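Repro case for the chain-ordering regression, as requested:
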Amino acid sequence: MRTLDVALGARAYPIHIGAGIFDNAELILPYLKRPRVAIVTNELVGPLYLGRLQAALDAAGVASTAIVLPDGEANKNWETLNLIFSGLLEARCERSVTLIALGGGVVGDMTGFAAACYQRGVPFIQVPTTLLSQVDSSVGGKTAINHPLGKNMIGAFYQPRLVLADVSTLRTLPIRELRAGLAEVIKHALIRDAARMDWLEQHIDGLLACDEDLLAEAVEWNCRIKATVVAADETEQGERAHLNLGHTFGHAIETGMGYGEYLHGEAVAAGVVMAAQLSAQLGMLPEADVERIRRLFQRAGLPVQGPKLGVERYLDLMRHDKKVADGRLRLILLRRIGEAVISEAASQAEIELAIASCCV
Amino acid sequence: MRTLDVALGARAYPIHIGAGIFDNAELILPYLKRPRVAIVTNELVGPLYLGRLQAALDAAGVASTAIVLPDGEANKNWETLNLIFSGLLEARCERSVTLIALGGGVVGDMTGFAAACYQRGVPFIQVPTTLLSQVDSSVGGKTAINHPLGKNMIGAFYQPRLVLADVSTLRTLPIRELRAGLAEVIKHALIRDAARMDWLEQHIDGLLACDEDLLAEAVEWNCRIKATVVAADETEQGERAHLNLGHTFGHAIETGMGYGEYLHGEAVAAGVVMAAQLSAQLGMLPEADVERIRRLFQRAGLPVQGPKLGVERYLDLMRHDKKVADGRLRLILLRRIGEAVISEAASQAEIELAIASCCV
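-- result from build under test --
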């Protein structure tokens, strides 16, 4: 088992990473105020892992209530959040209860937000069961639900007390979701760590085959990168924006195609290629590096081209996503592999060209 | 104008107290990130003060959106909260917007909670227009909504950037609500400041007649007491519980009679008398002081006896309200006028006797 400490002062917490650790009650016990938890999961993950976790907690003398939510981003709303509050109140959970999020990003976002609000704040523990949530949502403290008028519009910055990232749960993950999680892993290498890009090129096949040691190393290293960035900028004023490499293009793809058509990681992969292409056009990144990035995403089974929405529609959607300063979009670009920059250097014509050259 | 600084480290903020200050844009401007606010108010307060506030902000170059909620505790729920989120999103308010709560405790609680959650947190300013909210909700950072299964179950500790307590708005307050606000003022004197009890006995008629100087002094002093208690115990672990003098009895009255029958302050007044009576029974407080407390509440037009619910019903409701340790209720009692204590000294029989001797 590997352990990483996320340093956030009074809100510091450990991430344990390993195989077969999620039902190790001894890892959880030190973080409970009282032996009373509520486990929030969903209809897909519950049948796979809920019983094991409850049995382990029960054996350790911890009483647990299970709250099973419907699956999917479409349910990341108030009505589903309220199922958590109702479940907690019906089970007479007091302020000393600890919530455990058992599932992917949606379960984690909603459980974290419920923990932030229930009786004005109770502790919570994350047990992420997807690669994306292990490398992405475990660090950062962002919790939220969607509003009909906007994604993630209602939420809180709220840190977990503990994260248990069990890579053995990735064996039950659909391969398409594993690939989408790898998109974020590759993105993290691109913004901060050129040597890790070499490592990923060397081990991409093993990662796709769910080699647990490789996955654990990738998850640990990703959480470390993200923790460094977040600790330096907890409420997202500056360099945390680097994590959004490819996201402005990617959000345009997601929104333009309708949510659900592209997985987030798939849209990010295509978006990162567009950002890399644009960086090359501006003379910041060698063309060969764009090719190298494209090649790694392809090997990971991820899209390297966006859908043909038309460049005007792309720009429209991108302008909605981000604030425009003097008509110029603020984008995350690459100065080299391993170094991201915030830039308003690209003109509209250059952005259009990059999009056009990266569309099917 | 009087100014009190609530010392909460990085979350410190000033409370300005005076007559005719709520539409002084110069007091507000220094606290805005951008000249863009959303004013949340209700159907009763809006027609009285919204126009003046918007006109003043407009003259100062601040764009404002108004969100008018239905009135009353029954609407302190998710549906009404969502009216705030929808209003903010429809007006395309960004993370740089500042919310202004213009109204009583319900508007303040909901606006504060909306501010805590909108885009994971935006600043807010309180303009409390009832005596209760000026002396009570302006300090403490408690925000919340009700859940069908419990009051104030969903919320956050979230501090305003600024409070403008304008005592001239109390002229439009129904006299019954003014009296209910005075119940909290008297309670604060009883738990912390014996000299203030003398002052209140001297000036109770002037306060009821809405003398602005007297009201401003009472509000300032009350906020100061509460700020001291809260700063010492922001998340309610210890002495902040003193503020709950009379509340365990009072909540039993409110719940037993059905919400809305007794105003919160009215139930607290009767509850404080019960707590004082019990303190006297236990030999902690002279009987003459109980009489003195009773007399002041009577002069303020507040109830000094509870409804005849039956002592068993009272105890039932009180046990639901608070945790029971070894069968003994944890209550706030008075050691003398000006000094509250947390005590589990009272037996059930003694509590029953105190209730019986204070019921109509």
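Ordering looks correct now. The two ends of chain B are 43 Å apart (CA to CA).
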